[in-house]
Automatic annotation (TrEMBL), chain A:
Gene3D superfamilies: Gap junction channel protein cysteine-rich domain (1.20.1440.80)
Function: One gap junction consists of a cluster of closely packed pairs of transmembrane channels, the connexons, through which materials of low MW diffuse from one cell to a neighboring cell.
Lineage: Eukaryota, Metazoa, Chordata, Craniata, Vertebrata
Gene Ontology cellular component terms for the protein in this record: connexin complex
Protein name (database record): Gap junction protein
Molecular function terms from GO: gap junction channel activity
Membrane topology qualifier: Multi-pass membrane protein
Transmembrane segments: 29-46, 80-103, 141-168, 200-224, 231-250
Main location class: other
Classification via InterPro entries: Connexin, Connexin_CCC, Connexin_CS, Connexin_N, Connexin_N_sf
Domain Connexin N-terminal: 48-81
From TrEMBL, chain B:
Chain ranges of the Connexin cysteine-rich domain: 145-212
Record note on quaternary structure: A connexon is composed of a hexamer of connexins.
Domain Connexin N-terminal: 42-75
Gene encoding the protein: gjb1b
Function: One gap junction consists of a cluster of closely packed pairs of transmembrane channels, the connexons, through which materials of low MW diffuse from one cell to a neighboring cell.
InterPro entries assigned: Connexin, Connexin_CCC, Connexin_CS, Connexin_N, Connexin_N_sf
Cellular component terms per the entry's GO annotation: connexin complex
Biological process according to GO: cell-cell signaling
Similarity section: Belongs to the connexin family.
MF annotations from Gene Ontology: gap junction channel activity
Keywords, ordered alphabetically: Cell junction, Cell membrane, Gap junction, Membrane, Transmembrane, Transmembrane helix
Protein name: Gap junction protein
Pfam families, per database record: Connexin
Topological relation to the membrane, as annotated: Multi-pass membrane protein
C-alpha cells in the first residue's frame, strides 16, 4: 500500500524534526541521512523490488504448498519489514529528548508564572514566547537524556543489522536455494526473484546504517568531550578560588 | 484507511492529557499504527492469494480459508486501534463544553473582545472535578476495549503462533486436504510484537489511573478551604466577578493618573525605579 505508507513516514518526520531543535549539528545531519538515504529509499524499494518476492518465488515442483513452505523457511522475516522496524525503533529515542524538553518547558513556565506576576499581560506573553522558542543548552539532565538516546539508537541499529546478518547469512541474496521441507517430494530447487537488485539494495541500506552508526558514535564522543571540558572548567575555577590564584593565570599554566 | 486524519483528530486531545497519557498516545501512533501501516499490512497483503490447498477442487481454497481465518489479524488490529483511541474524544467533548460555558459567562460579563475569546480557545484546563471523572471513565473504557480485543484474539486464534499447515475437510473439499498458509513465521513475529505493545499500552493506562487517583487524593488532603474544591462553574463565576472589581479599580486609578500633567524626566525616572 504505497499511498498509506508514504502518508505515515511524513508524520514521523514532523515529530522528529520538532524534537531535533535541541540536537547538535551532527544530530541534524543524522536526521537528514536517515530520511533521505533510508526512509525514501525504503519507500521506493519496497514496492518495486520486494513487491513480488513471494509471487515470483518459483520452485521446481508442481506439489501444492511446497513453494509456501520453502519461502517461509528461507525468508522468516522480509528485509523490508526488518528495515521498517529498524527505522521505527531508531527514531524513537529522539522522542525521549523531546519529552524531556517538554517537561522542562512546563516546569519553567510554572516558575515563570509564579515569579513574573508583576509583569503586564503583554510582558508575560512575551516571556512565555521566549521560553517556548529558546534552545536549551545540552547540559545537566538534558546531557544525560541525550546521551542515553544516542546509546539506545546505537543499540537498535547494531541489533537490527546483526539480526539481518544472522537471518540471511550475510548481505548477499542467492539466486537459488535448495529446499526439502515436507510436502516437497524431495530436494527441490527454488529460485528467488531479482537477487542482484536485492543484494544491491541490502548493501546500500547496510552502508547507510553504518554511516548513521558512525555519526552517532561521533556525536557521543563530542558530548563526552563537552562534559570533560565542563569538568575541567569547574576544576580550574575551584583551584583558582582555593589557591587565590587568578583564573586566567591557572588557565595559561594548564594549557 | 485514512490514518492521517485520524491522527490529526486524536492528537488534538493531547493538550489536555497527563504526561503518561501523552506517552501512551505516542506509543499508539509509533509502535502500533505506524507499524501496522508500513509493515503488517504488506505481510498480510497476500494472505488469501498465497493460501494454497493440495487439491484441484474449485471452491475448496476459499472455503478452507474462510474456515480458518474468520477475520484477518489486520482488520482486528485496525478495529482495536480505532476503538481504543476513541474514548479520548469524550475528554475533547467535555473540554469543548467547558469552553462553550466559558464563552457564555464572558459574554454575560460584557467582556467578549476577540482577544478574550482567543484566550479561551487556547486555555488549558486543569483535570479537576467533572473533567477528572470524564478522563477516568475514558481511561477505563480504553482498558476494557484493549482487554476485550486481546480476549477475542485469543478466542479466534488460540495459539499466537501462526501454523504453516492446516488440515481442512469442509464441503466441497473431497477429503481432508492440506492447506498451506503464506508467510507463517513473519506473521507470528508481527502478532507477538503487536500483542506485546498492546500489553504495554494496558500497563500505561493502569499507571495513568493510579496517577490520577493519587493526584486527587493529594488535592483532597490539602487545605479544606482550598478554592479548587468548588465546582468549576462557581470558580469561574467568582473569578470573573473578582476580575470585574479589579478592572474597576484599575480604571479608577488610571483616571487619577491621567489628570496629572507632564512631569520632568528626573521625577519620571524615580517613579520607574520604585517599580
Amino acid at each position: 500500500m504505497p499511498l498509506t505508507s508514504s502518508m505515515s513516514w511524513p508524520a514521523l518526520y514532523t515529530q522528529l524534526v520538532g524534537a531535533n531543535r535541541h540536537a547538535t549539528s551532527l544530530g541534524k545531519i543524522w536526521l537528514s541521512v536517515l530520511f533521505i538515504f533510508r526512509v525514501m529509499v525504503l519507500v521506493v524499494a519496497a514496492e518495486s523490488v520486494w513487491g513480488d518476492e513471494q509471487s515470483d518465488f518459483t520452485c521446481n515442483t508442481l506439489q501444492p504448498g511446497c513453494e509456501n513452505v520453502c519461502y517461509d523457511q528461507f525468508f522468516p522475516v522480509s528485509h523490508i519489514r526488518l528495515w521498517c522496524l529498524q527505522l521505527v525503533f531508531v527514531s524513537t529515542p529522539t522522542l525521549l529528548v523531546a519529552m524531556y524538553v517538554a517537561y522542562r518547558n512546563h516546569r519553567d513556565k510554572r516558575k515563570l508564572l509564579q515569579v513574573a506576576g508583576f509583569l503586564s499581560a503583554k510582558g508575560q506573553d512575551e516571556e512565555l514566547e521566549t521560553l517556548k522558542k529558546r534552545r536549551l543548552p545540552i547540559a545537566g539532565a538534558l546531557w544525560w537524556t541525550y546521551a542515553c538516546s544516542l546509546v539506545f539508537r546505537l543499540l537498535f541499529e547494531a541489533g537490527f543489522m546483526y539480526a539481518l546478518y544472522v537471518v540471511y547469512d550475510g548481505f548477499q541474496m542467492p539466486r537459488l536455494v535448495q529446499c526439502d521441507q515436507w510436502p516437497c517430494p524431495n530436494l527441490v530447487d527454488c529460485f528467488i526473484s531479482r537477487p542482484t537488485e536485492k543484494t544491491i539494495f541490502t548493501v546500500f541500506m547496510a552502508t547507510t546504517s553504518s554511516i548513521c552508526m558512525v555519526l552517532n558514535v561521533a556525536e557521543l564522543v563530542y558530548l563526552v568531550i563537552k562534559l570533560i571540558d565542563a569538568i575541567l572548567f569547574w576544576i580550574i575555577l575551584f583551584l583558582s578560588f582555593k589557591l587565590c590564584i587568578p583564573y586566567k593565570l591557572i588557565k595559561t599554566l594548564s594549557f | 484507511m485514512n490514518w492521517g486524519s485520524f491522527y490529526a483528530v486524536i492528537s488534538g486531545v493531547n493538550r489536555h492529557s497527563t504526561g503518561i497519557g501523552r506517552v501512551w498516545l505516542s506509543v499508539i501512533f509509533i509502535f502500533r499504527i505506524l507499524v501496522l501501516v508500513v509493515a503488517a499490512e504488506s505481510v498480510w497483503g497476500d494472505e488469501k492469494s498465497g493460501f494454497t490447498c493440495n487439491t484441484q477442487q474449485p471452491g475448496c481454497n476459499s472455503v478452507c480459508y474462510d474456515q480458518f481465518f474468520p477475520i484477518s489479524h489486520i482488520r482486528l488490529w485496525a478495529l482495536q486501534l480505532i476503538l481504543v483511541s476513541t474514548p479520548a474524544l469524550l475528554v475533547a467533548m467535555h473540554v469543548a463544553h467547558r469552553r462553550h460555558i466559558d464563552k457564555k459567562i464572558l459574554k454575560r460579563a460584557g467582556r467578549s473582545s476577540p482577544k478574550e475569546l482567543e484566550n479561551i480557545k487556547n486555555q488549558k484546563f486543569q483535570i479537576t472535578g467533572a473533567l477528572w471523572w470524564t478522563y477516568m471513565i475514558s481511561i477505563i473504557f480504553r482498558i476494557i476495549f484493549e482487554v476485550a480485543f486481546l480476549y477475542i484474539f485469543y478466542l479466534i486464534y488460540p495459539d499466537f503462533k501462526m501454523v504453516r499447515l492446516v488440515k481442512c475437510d469442509s464441503f466441497p473439499c473431497p477429503n481432508t486436504v492440506d492447506c498451506f498458509v503464506s508467510r507463517p513465521t513473519e506473521k507470528t513475529i508481527f502478532t507477538v510484537f503487536m500483542l506485546a505493545v498492546s500489553a504495554v499500552c494496558v500497563l500505561l493506562n493502569l499507571a495513568e489511573v493510579v496517577y490520577l487517583i493519587g493526584r486527587a487524593c493529594k488535592r483532597s488532603f490539602r487545605s479544606p478551604e482550598d478554592e479548587s474544591k468548588l465546582p468549576w462553574i462557581s470558580q469561574r463565576l467568582s473569578t470573573y466577578k473578582q476580575n470585574e472589581i479589579n478592572q474597576l479599580i484599575a480604571d479608577h486609578s488610571l483616571k487619577s493618573k491621567f489628570t496629572v500633567t507632564k512631569k520632568s524626566p528626573a521625577e519620571r525616572g524615580e517613579r520607574c525605579s520604585a517599580f
